[in-house]
Amino acid sequence: MKKIALLGAGFIASVHMEAWKNIEGAKVVAFFEVNNVKASEFQKKYSLPHYNSLSQLFSEQEVDAVDICLPTFLHREYTEMAALEKKHVFCEKPIALSLEDAFAMQKVCEDNGVFLMIGHVLRFWGEYVKARELVASGAIGQPILINAFRLSVTPVWSVNSWILKSHLSGGASLDLHIHDLDFVNWLAGNPQEVFARGLFREDSLDHVVTTVKYGNGVVASIEGGWMMQGDFPFTCGFRILGSEGVLEWTFRAGVNIEERAQSSPLFLYRRGEQRKLVEVAAEDPYREELAYFLKCIEKDTPPGLGTPEQAIEALRLALAAKSSVIEGERVLLEEL
Length: 336
Ligand SMILES: NC(=O)c1ccc[n+]([C@@H]2O[C@H](COP(=O)([O-])OP(=O)(O)OC[C@H]3O[C@@H](n4cnc5c(N)ncnc54)[C@H](O)[C@@H]3O)[C@@H](O)[C@H]2O)c1
Known about the structure:
It is built from eleven helices and 15 strands. With about 325 residues, it is an alpha/beta fold. The protein folds into two domains: about 140 residues, 3-Layer(aba) Sandwich (Rossmann fold), CATH 3.40.50; about 180 residues, Dihydrodipicolinate Reductase, domain 2 (2-Layer Sandwich). The strands form two sheets. The protein has a nine-stranded mixed sheet with strand order 14-13-12-11-7-10-9-8-15. The protein has a six-stranded parallel sheet with strand order 3-2-1-4-5-6, sandwiched between helices. Helix 1 crosses helix 10. The protein is globular, with a radius of gyration of 20 Å. Nicotinamide-adenine-dinucleotide binds next to helix 1. The site of nicotinamide-adenine-dinucleotide has 24 residues, from helix 1.
């Protein structure tokens, strides 16, 4: 049985906690949280030992791995603390706010012989996984053009509104848009050129349309933002055009990802054929990614999904998009 310490007791920590409950071979043994209100709510619900000091948690609890569900600006600090204690690290996306922090996280985990996996959950999300499998199997021929999008209302739940402060969260471009940047990288390989336009609120890039040219000639248009109004439902999806066909999926939920019921199906369109409905098993992608992380620890094999390299590539693209919006110019990724 692997013992997990959960860091944070906010929105995504609860999603992870529910997922860990359904994973055999792992147990959350304690949680770390500095906010007393959040801590007591979480403790009431899950009856777990609570710590407001991570070093105290480590000195009193035997732990194999940490699951970092803290605000992004804290990812490096807590990854370093855990790695120095020889704990494997699962950390929510985005890996960090800067490439410097991300490389430091990668290095400290390597130097201490522990795994670092980043929660790029689309790599475990049924429709995204299935689309990638279909593309790899040649179902749409050569992919040519990829469109991916993710739209929501402004998130209001975060403690002290950290998510709305660009220097703490990176704005929607790093927090939300990065999911799709990672997905398109996963499909198309090495991004080469970026041109983006977007909307700032104060210094937070909160809606962005990023066009990317990949080394293999694939072109992508990726849109993400949290400036939707009223009860506009959380919406995401993709359309992948290939030389022989198209894959399309759109998902509309409640105002946030917690209501994941109402999804519209994945369709495969091929030249000369009737469209096909593609069946996708409705697994919890958060459970899938954490179960995968656990398997990697059990087998002592480094994760191949949500690797620091993949997370750094997605961050590099998000930062390139932001600088393209600011400069109004195309950014070549080699230049960063
Ligand atoms: N993969 C996904 O789908 C997904 C979804 C939401 C959030 N996230 C990521 O998860 C992370 C957390 O986001 P959230 O929405 O759960 O935020 P949140 O505000 O709901 O929770 C963050 C928790 O960290 C604690 N915290 C705040 N400041 C702290 C500090 N200075 N020191 C220690 N702890 C502190 C808060 O008290 C809170 O309990 C972010 O990196 C975010 O990008 C990922």
